[in-house]
Write a structure and sequence with these properties.
The protein is an alpha/beta fold and 193 residues long. The chain is built from five helices and five strands; from the N terminus they run αβαααββαββ. Helix content is 67%, strand content 12%.
Amino acid sequence: MKTAKTLLTTILLCVTAVVSAQEGKFGFIDFNETLRRMPDYKEAETNLRQIQSEYHEEIERSKREFERQYIEFMLEQDHLSPSIVAKRQKELQLLMDNNAQFRDDIQQELEARRDELLVPIKKKLLKAVSDVCTEKNLDYVVDTGKGTYLYINENRGVDISEDVYTLLGIEIVRETVVEGGQPVLTTNDNTVK
């Protein structure tokens, strides 16, 4: 009987040790928020807005051209033969279809360009997260920005945001709220300056 108790105790200790070893230490960060705070991201967004602006000008020019031709047609259609009216209607329809296709092509091109610009920035952020995890000996990181984690025990996990911000050169601004001459709350704004 004593051997069975000893064996049971040994098994329970082994199971506890295995479970404890498997729990691991985790970190958490809002990946997209950190990405938006990176200077490289802001530069990429500026470049995309410039490209978008150029395309917008061309779309507006095409729209004005269509409107001009449509108004001309509407003013002349009563004086034109039915075959010319049909021909002009087809031309207007083709112009309208081409404009719609051009807008769709631009949208796809902008999305591809955005992905192209963001890949190296995301890789840089992932490298910084990896470096912080290695430094802090973390087993995994939770992305809090996805909203899929309803609870994180901050005593068991490590918020690696500030470490990643520091590694990426993002300035951290701290604000202290004072009431009656005594500090009552210190917040991290993490605003990039």
